[in-house]
Amino acid sequence: MLMKPYTGNRADNEEEEEEEEEEEGSESSSPPVSYQVKPPPEGCCTTDGFCQAGKDLRLVSISNEHIEVPSGFLLVGAKSPNLPDHLLVCAVDKRFLPDDNGRNALLGFSGNCVGCGKKGFCYFTEFSNHINLKLTTQPKKQKHLKYYLVRNAQGALTKGSVICWKGAEFRGRQSSTSTCSSTLFQLPESSGLSGSTSSEPLPPANPSAPAGTQQTAAAVDHIPSTAAFSSAVYNGKESPKQQLMKNNLSALTRPSVLGTLTNSGPPKKRHKGWSPESPSSTETWNLQLNPQASNRIKNDGGSLSSLPHSALVGPASSPMVGSGEPVSVPDNLLKICKAKPVIFKGHGNFPYLCGNINDVIVSPLLYTCYRNSQSLSRAYEQYGASTIQPISEEMQLLLTVYYLVQLAADQVPLIEDLEQIFMRSWRESHLSEIRQYQQAVPQAFPQLPSPITPVTSAQLPWLAGLAASSCNDSVHIIECSYSLAEGLSEMFKLLIEGKLIKTNYVVIICASRNRAIDSCIVITGKYQARVLSESMLSPSDYQKEVNYQLVTGKVETLGSFFSTLCPEGDIDLLLEKFYQENQGHISSSLSASVNKPTAVNGAGTAVCTSYEIERHQIRPFQLAVAQKLLSHICSIADSSTQNLDLGSFEKIDFLICVPPSEVTYQQTLFHLWHSGILLELGLEKEHLTKQRVEQYVMKLDAEAQIKFKIFLQNSMQNPHTLFVLIHDHAHWDLMSAMHSLYPQTELSSGLVDRLLNCREVKEAPNIVTLHVTSFPYALQTQHTHISPYNEIHWPSSYSNGVDLYHENKKYFGLSEFIESTLSGHSIPLLRYDSSFEAMVMALGKRFPRLHSAVIRTFVLIQHYSAAMMAVCGLSQMKNYTSVETLEITQNLINSSRQCPSGHGLMVVLRIPCIPLAAVAYERLYNVRERLALEDNFEIILGNPNSGITIGKHFVEQLKIWQKIEDVDWRPQTYLELEGLPCILIFSGMDPQGESLPRSLRYCDLRLINSSSLVRTSLEQELGLAAYFVSSELHTEKAVVNDVLESDPEKLSSTDNEDEEIVTEGSTSEKRSPMKRERSRSHDSASSSLSSKASTFCTESSPPQVLSNSTEETTNNYERQKQKVDKGAQTTVSKHLPPVTEQLDMKQNIKSTQVSITSSSSPPFSSSSSSSAPAHNSFILQTSQCSMTKASKQPPIVFLPKLVYDIITSTDSSGLPKSSSLLPYHSVMWASSFRPLMSKMMTCTEQSLYYRQWTVPKPIHMDYNNRSEGRMDTFHPRRLLLSGPPQVCKKNKIGKTGAYLQFLSILSRMLIRLTEVDVYDEEEININIKEEESDQYYHQPGDMWPDLESFKKMPFDYTIHDPKYEDASLICSKLQTTNSEDKSKSRRQEDMYTCRQTTRMRLSKYAAYNTYHHCEQCHQYMGFNPRYQIYESTLHAFAFSYSMLGEEIQLHFIIPKSKEHHFVFSQPGRQLESMRLPLVTDKSEDYIKSPTFTPTTGRHEHGLFNLYHAMDGASHLHVLVVKEYEMAIYKKYWPNHIMLVLPSIFNSAGVGAAHFLIKELSYHNLELERNRQEELGIKPQDIWPFIVISDDSCVMWNAVEVDCSGDRKSDYTWTERNVSLKQILQHIEATPNVTHYALIGMRKWSSKTNSAEIKEPFSCCHVHDFIMLNVDLTQNVQYNQNRFTCDDVDFNLRVHSAGLLICRFNHFNVMKKQIAVGGQRSFHIKSKVSDTPVSISPAQYICAPDSKHTFLAAPAQLLLEKYLQYHSHRFFPLSLKNYSHPVLSVDCYLNLGPQIAVCYVSSRPHSLNISSSGLTFSGLLLYLCDSFVVASFLKKFHFLKGATLCVICQDRNSLRQTVVRLELEDEWQFRLRDEFQTANAKEDRPLFFLTGRHI
User: Fold this and answer.
1) Cβ atoms within 10 A of the Cβ of 92, count?
2) Mean of pLDDT values over 724-730
3) Does the N terminus or the C terminus of the chain have fewer Cβ atoms within 10 A?
4) Which of 64-68, 306-310, 445-449 is predicted least confidently?
5) 1146 vs 1540, 1550, 1684, 1832, CA distance in Å?
6) pLDDT tens readout for residues 706-721
7) What are the angstrom distances between the C-alpha of 751 and each of 662, 702, 732, 1581, 1642?
């Protein structure tokens, strides 16, 4: 930022600290050798400060005494450890003291006592005893002789320069910069600078001498760390990143040293052999902080030495110790020069300053910058690039001169500019080496000469003088031959003589051939020096200083000066006179005009219809941001780190933390109340009270800790609630809690750190912290807690010209404001007031001791007062204000007149300093009262610590506008002031999140602290004016190009192309991109000179005419203004503000003297005709509401000129300079060796930039967030939301609405996580009954089926499962009667409709997928410390099966925790069998039946966690997976047993899995029978059942029937969710259970009716979840080839084999809709091409030997899919012919819903339907085996023309089947009727032959 000055300060305490630090840091790290003081002789004096002869040696006592000093001796000050505040005077032979270069001191000692006169002390030990130093360590002269003593102008002995031993700090420039590094501290934020900025120079690091001769260039470089402190102050040899690593900063304690230099001297004895050129010697002592220093801090009033903490900036060398003759600062320097010169130390040695040192300020900032740029090349050196030289000192100084020369008279130097200049220069001069380095080979750098000829020290003064010769003496070069002292003396002389009046910068150069250059730069320009000196104050000191000036009455001189300006006399007298004359007249006209609308609204008077109270609605932006936040939360939960278990939370709670601003607090409560979020989250009931809402918002003030403690307690007591801690306005207080413990700091500072960073919040697994801010930079440092992956940025509304969010409002922020200032825009929205600036500058020179904030405020109050008086008829007062202030005031006062309801504009007057804001309020309030304007507009003092106070009259108006009935209502937020004409005096050092209403028209920021230049501060102030405008409206041509369509994520929207400046009355001119000018709407002084030829002057009134709509005036007026040379500022006379002459000039141009409003014409009469002055042709005769106009365009912003220049200037890439400033006052740049930011950086790239290049200062709460040996210091549950400022105006488009919406959707998602979509479909084919009779075989309340009764039940062939709605009907002889009806209701498109689902809340007995993590099932899932994750073994298990013709080899993966379910052979641990229980076993906690779940493609989503479903009961669960999916399933389910199918089944369907499960289970049953038979157990006693479950079964329900009615048939029923354990144990307990082959249950439906459960058991098809008796079904197999309907096919086989199938109707299973895996994992695609082409089912078959495209899919799948959709091609007669079904032998294939089939089994003794009287329309023979014979087929009758389809594995089998079954006897075949599935030969296609019945 600004080059920050470096002030001196009182050294009282620091000497003591320096002494102690010297002792602690000296010699070595070992403890000091204890030293026994020799006992003094008897009777001698032992008093401290006196010698043993009893003579006083203290400097304060003998400073005026005459002391004889022998020739060759010098007087020096010795420091006594017992008298820290005193120096003892001694006379020492100067041969034993170091010379000017710090060298050549003889070893030993020779000294005299000046008290008693004793001479000839040859040993310092002896001498120290004599002067009673009473040391506990070995006496050394280097430790205790601290200062030279010199006589001042009055002849008094005072403390002089420091004695620096061993030459560390007196050597030439080259050696010192590379060696003596020491720790540099910054002053803390709350540095206690007193009112006059305590400009005494900082003491050197030696401890004795009176204040008069303190030398300012002490060994320590203190840099005041103010809020404005910005520049890169890390003075390391390398970039600080490397320094920090080298010096192991993490080992340091938090520094509390007050700025005294630790280890300020040269290396001690351990550095023997230390050479000046040895850089390595410094590394070992670069950063040694004194850990005990904080214990010795003394509170010393306001002096700097009492400050509690300082910021570590980095290692610095301090060669600035003075040498040579001291330079005396002249008396009355400030009085003569009207400013304190600021001296920037540059290169080399700096002389002592003595005399009137209060009137100068010395800063090391430039020296630091030079040092940093010296370190640039070292980043390359570490890679071996030793040939790259740093930029030379001569070039540095020359570039500095070039920079100063091009600064304008009203510009202040920025250290960032200089750093960038050095960086670019160095890069350009070493481009080839850098490129070579970047391309690799670091060791092979050739010796390349620098392409730029180096500047020699002899050339330097001449070149510098040449550069300065062109700048009109703005930069003055002083060349001195011997030392800087002569140059400084000459400079002071010139200042006193007044010869540097035009000079802003004096560059002093001392260059000679044989040594390095010395230099310094003195800021002598009054404006620059004032800005730089004030910029050193921290925010609190700034307030203290201003308050001091107000309290002590120093500002009264300013007030009296203003009184003399007005020729008519004192303004107050004028006001009083005006009040007396006009009291009755004006008040009556005012009341008539103002109150009329509100009084007669009821009587039909026109009322403003443009005032709309916008409804609170969620904007597209907010929804997008909320969804981004939710997605980040889900990412945290989904990560493998287990940092957030969303599945374990049932609800959301939250707390919003806001800064301690009452308005922000009330504003947040308002948003929260109206959002309805508390009711939506279920946190509060209806009838919400404000007290309840307040529980969810916490103001970060003294009472915050109580509320926060309650929040923490709630989070601990409710582990299943997710607490979201929202830190709004998160950049506000980032003070470290440790630094906030000191008494000087405010109570609330450090509160964020204490609360949000406390251990409880960090460790709580159910607290997520969300930081919300518009300025996230301070949270984006190297030590941030927030991961870059957890940052959410406000989205861009446009992408490639496409409107992404269809948002009808467009954001108008900083980049759009900057864009409006570019040429070609008619209304610049950013302006500055040159009249105001000129007057402030003139008064600054007149009152140099007053702070410029005081001057600026008083001038602005004067302008506003004069403007109000001018508008009210005192036209002469227009000369005492500026055009800008006049415009604001005119529009404010007239705004309410233009609206029938009295709506008006808001003017925000930003006064950061609260005492000044109070003064401004009082003054403006009084002026308004005297002018009788109290009912026209309100003046509001906005203090962050208090609420809003407005007059009763205005409260009533607001209540009428907002239709508020509440008698006690008062506005509590600025948003509620919408439409109120008012001046809001907005105070407080920083805005704290207060939003402003749409009626804001002017944002007057002329009083903001322009020296506090950090990016956050600037953007925060400008953020007050940021605005959403309606995208349908154009802001009066304010935006010519697509400003609003620019990406808000970009740093700047300004483009870099040439643009024409089009002005009225002047020709267009082209400008280069660098010099691209801005329209000078803001420069009233210069514009008046340049607008003579403009169209404006042809109008009938001059520019300052105050029309009813001065906005229009000004808009026209501004259009024609042109840039005028900077030198063309009007000269201001001493007694007249500049605007006077300007306005007079404008009037003279027109030679018309126009009164603003004549006093005879009342200014506020209600009639529009009489109120308009006759002369004023600019008045817009319209009653359009000014508030409505204001809400349709962004506000106009007035800035200080200094800030305006920074905001509107851009670098070569188009990047605004403000973006490259230091981001925040409590962070610092990690290195000046950093790339420049880019104009095109997105928010994400900016974040990464700051994360790499900024580090927090010790006062920042993130400073200690560093972990040893661990890079990842991010907190896993922290997020950062950044969005543009002020976007939550009345429109509520902003961040508050976004995060409240986030809470809403997060809550819904948590509920969604506890809910599931289950299929909810009615059973199909209910109307097709097997029996027409109402016979029931069981009572409704029966718990188990009766075996004998059940055997009598007929089997229901009809499929009722709704998933088979598009499957073929299975007919029996009795269905023919009503099957026709069914055909009408079944439509072709039904099969394509989505299946119906219902959302159900998960019960505690649900099955879960892999995303569920709860503490109870951690062990079940394998997260048990007893079993290491993934610890499992692979076991092969083989058995033979004749149908497959080969041995089947399966593999089991068995986790260690599940091995007890298996039997292994003892010697070889071979798997033998799976343990099975006995039929007679009974246990409450044990499920007897092993559960098998076949699955594919659902490793994440399959519901395999049955822990809760089984209610914790022990059970055996086996996942059946394909071989290629084994690894992924094992990863997700490490504690589950897996059965891995052989690789030949990788492409098989579910039939293969079912087949192998059943065959394996039967084989295992046999093995177990054999094993247990040896134990004496009968084979039939082994449990024969297994469970086969789908992977989507989620919950189970039981129907409870109550038969307690009067009649036996009466019953009621209820359904409740039960555990799977309960259901299985119930079924397993069924009497005679082993007689049932298949047991199943219903599928759940919400539409279940009583009739369906009246019969508790059914003999019908069972699906999805079955218990299979593998013993009874030994000879019935699943078809291993099937993909679909294999369960229907198996059910029919089981029934035909005469086995019982029982469905428990009182149990049902819910199936979850899972969108991935399962049957969806089979994709049918072309085998030839990889490109996905849609293939219709008609292409699934082809003629044999054809050139048809083959498909990459199993033949069986192609067959089944083809028959499902196109079977009518084979069976044309069967289409919708349900009375004549297709006869299907030994199998069920789905032929589609429009064809019915009749299943028969060819097995002997099988149960089949009676086919007598049934005629079939077709015959389907699918892979028929030897049981199908010709005689069997001849039993059945077929329609004439019926069709036959024979399906076989190959063409040969096809022919053999036709011959074996004698099919040609009854069926006719043609050659073209042969087909095959569309498979290649190697894929073994299926072949089929069709024929017609003869």
Assistant:
1) 25
2) 95
3) C
4) 306-310
5) 96, 94, 94, 120
6) 999 999 999 999 998 9
7) 17, 9, 11, 73, 61
Residue with structure tokens 């961040």?
1295
Among the residues of 980-1050, which ranges form H helices? 1015-1023
Range in 371-375, 554-558, 1116-1120 with the lowest mean pLDDT = 1116-1120
Nearest CA to 402 among 387, 375, 424? 424
Separation of alpha carbons 139 and 121, rounded Å:
14
Nearest to 459 by CA among 511, 508, 496: 511
Assigned token pair, 1664: 């999805």
CA angle 897, 901, 903 (to 5 degrees): 65
Length in residues, the chain:
1894
- C-alpha separations of 1488 from 76, 266, 1399, 1406, 1632 in Å: 100, 85, 32, 20, 16
Q: Which residue has the higher pLDDT, 1149 or 876?
A: 876
- Per-residue tokens: 890: 């005119």
The most confident of the ranges 672-686, 824-838, 1511-1525 is 1511-1525
What DSSP assignment string belongs to 955-993? HHHHHHHTT---TT----SGGGGTT--EEEEEESSS--S
What is the β-pairing status of strands 1725-1726 and 1751-1752? antiparallel
Return d(Cα 457, Cα 399) in angstroms, integer.
Answer: 14
CA dist., res. 1295 & res. 658, Å (int): 13
For residues 1250 and 1273, what is the distance between their CA atoms, to the nearest angstrom? 16
Q: Which residue has the tokens 């009673």?
A: 132
Question: What pairing do the DSSP bridges indicate for beta strands 1585-1589 and 1665-1669?
Answer: antiparallel
Q: What are phi and psi of 1874, to 5 degrees?
A: -95, 135
- Structure tokens, 712: 């923490």
Sheet holding 697-699, edge to edge: 697-699, 651-658, 721-728, 767-773, 1278-1282, 791-793
Residue type at position 1704: F
Q: Is 1399 helix (H, G, I), strand (E, B) or coil?
A: strand
1290-1309 pLDDT tens trace: 444 588 999 999 999 999 88
Name the residue type at position 1674: Q
> Which tokens go with 1461?
């379910």
Q: Which residue has the tokens 């959301």?
A: 652
**E-strand spans in 729-854?**
767-773, 791-793, 798-799, 802-803, 809-812, 830-832
pLDDT band at 88 (very low <50, low <70, confident <90, very high): very high
Q: Identify which of 367-371, 1443-1447, 1684-1688 has the greatest average pLDDT.
A: 1684-1688
State how far Cα 1720 lies from the chain centre: 40
Report the mean per-residue pLDDT for the chain: 77
Structure tokens at 30: 């070992």
pLDDT at 495 over 90: yes
Least reliable range by pLDDT among 176-190, 570-584, 860-874, 1726-1740? 176-190
Secondary structure in 3-state letters for 215-278: CCCCCCCCEECCCCCCCCCCCCCCCHHHHHHHHCHHHCCCCCCCCCCCCCCCCCHHHCCCCCCC
Token pair listed for 570: 């004192």
Asked if the model's pLDDT at residue 1577 lies above 50, the reply is yes
> Is the separation of the CB atoms in 836 and 863 below 8 Å?
yes
The C-alpha atoms of residue 284 and residue 181 are separated, in whole angstroms, by 10
pLDDT, tens digit, for every residue of 973-1005? Answer: 999 999 999 999 999 989 999 999 989 999 999
- Strand-strand pairing, 798-799 and 802-803: antiparallel
Q: How many Cβ atoms from other residues are within 10 Å of residue 1590's Cβ? A: 22
Helix (H, G, I), strand (E, B) or coil at 1711: strand
DSSP, collapsed to helix, strand or coil, labels residue 1454 as strand
